[in-house]
Amino acid sequence: MKFVKALILSLIAVCISRASGENVILSAMQSELNRSMENLVMEEGERPYFISYWVYEYASFALEASMGCLTDQDDGHYRVLNVDVRVGDYEFDNSGGKEKKWWQLEDEDRKYRNMQVPIDDDTVALKHRLWLVTDHKYKKALEDYGNKKKEKALSVEDAEDTTPDFSKEEPEVYAGDEVSLSIDRNAWEQRIKNLSKLFTEYEDITISRVGFKARAKNNYFVNSEGSKIQKGNALYSIDIEVQSRSDDGMPLTDHLKFCSTDGDFDFPRIEAEIADMADRLTALKQAEECESYIGPVLIASPGSGAFVAEVLVPLLSASKKLWKDGGELKNKVGQRIMSASISVFDDPALDSYQRQALAGHYQFDNQGVAARRVDLVENGVLRGFLLSRSPVKGFEKSNGHGRTNGVQAGNLFVKSSSPQSFPQLKNRLMSECRKQGKSYGYMVTSALLPESSVSGVVFTSSGSDGGGRPAMSRFKPVEVYKVYTDGRQELERGMEVMAGSPLSMLSKIKALGNDPGVWTVDYGTASIVAPSILVSELEVRKASGGEQTQPILPAPGEAVE
């Protein structure tokens, strides 16, 4: 397969430069941090024991095209400030209250969360924003600290929890390169339009979109412990979304995502996968609907990564708040939780796997802690968790996984010491069906997970969705085959996976393949590397709702029969 690296690198370059002397942003942050730690105090209030400033500068260029025509173009350049102010001490501080969603915040709190700061290197203007947000965060910290002390006095559960609220970490000092974008826009416009034009050959595809995004992100971090970090990275992505509709009105969707850290894409591969996806959706239009079913399911890679993100990652993420609300595995360290052949680890230091970029690569997390490899499961035995600076019992140090959405995976790998080929897994699927007295099982060959992050939030539930219907998993199969025990298979559509207990699901993972693939989270914050997975039991049903009538007229340019 021919790569177009020389061409692409001539079209897009990441300009890297080492700033001479102290960076203006870091200098302003450090100056205001020192002033706040020395002088910030309210009458009869406690001084902050910890303050951190994190500014990320984001420069981006984005294109969208459909049917060979450009539909959108956008340039972005902004800086965002996050401030953490803590009062009390490491053992007990203002943190850990019920976290509110963006829309639940008071107007004043919403204004100071992720506040934009000037994009000009003006020290006075930068310090002004730092001062303003620090003042608000300090006053809010005092309020939360007082409320938390009152709650602790009345709570038996809190009295039994002796883990610190905030972990003590060694300061990190790192001066990396700054990155910026230099893009041949005309060349990328033509390339994205050419990719989008491929869908004009498929009359059953009703909506198609090809998007390209290049972004350079520079991070600046300081805290009162002495950390000072400057780092930058670039990420390029091509996103492809398509929609169709079955004859009875069922919506059909599919999605492809490709990432690169240097702008080097394998375009012949992308074109081939576009053709496969379009053919897949066209075939699904005529397929039979899925039936309600409980039994063995084989999930092919890389869609298996979406299954891992939904089921496994939440269980392996730990913080005091997450464990207070759940923490199904908190008492199972050192115990076997999966098949003895399975191991799981997370390693943000890796930037690629089998020539594919890993979106979860980073050097330091958002709390200024160096990212480290974490062995989570070894030979089926639980060994550790993804951790931030919010300690849990038995794990009082961060391993560098405190990110934008709390505790979050970086590059999570699932491996087997006895991997099997896909034909072998398919044979095991049929064998498992016969063992359970079933005439067929299901094979998922393409899947989605409509979510922007892979974190410790458990979205699955064995309860209901609030409207009386059983809760559904976010894991969304797209291409599904009914596989009979005699080897016959039939394409089906419209499968929904019922949400069950993620913990019980671990023991139902019976075998892994030898075909690891990279699945990237929608917004490019993490990657899951997982092979095909055979599950002994999954409950599914026919998708309901969302049916739409077919267009009255054929699409323009199509012949009327």
From TrEMBL:
<protein>
    <recommendedName>
        <fullName>Metalloprotease TldD/E C-terminal domain-containing protein</fullName>
    </recommendedName>
</protein>
<feature type="region of interest" description="Disordered">
    <location>
        <begin position="152"/>
        <end position="171"/>
    </location>
</feature>
<dbReference type="Pfam" id="PF19289">
    <property type="entry name" value="PmbA_TldD_3rd"/>
</dbReference>
<dbReference type="GO" id="GO:0005829">
    <property type="term" value="C:cytosol"/>
</dbReference>
<dbReference type="InterPro" id="IPR036059">
    <property type="entry name" value="TldD/PmbA_sf"/>
</dbReference>
<dbReference type="InterPro" id="IPR045569">
    <property type="entry name" value="Metalloprtase-TldD/E_C"/>
</dbReference>
<dbReference type="InterPro" id="IPR047657">
    <property type="entry name" value="PmbA"/>
</dbReference>
<feature type="domain" description="Metalloprotease TldD/E C-terminal">
    <location>
        <begin position="296"/>
        <end position="423"/>
    </location>
</feature>
<dbReference type="GO" id="GO:0006508">
    <property type="term" value="P:proteolysis"/>
</dbReference>
<keyword id="KW-0732">Signal</keyword>
<feature type="signal peptide">
    <location>
        <begin position="1"/>
        <end position="21"/>
    </location>
</feature>
<dbReference type="GO" id="GO:0008237">
    <property type="term" value="F:metallopeptidase activity"/>
</dbReference>
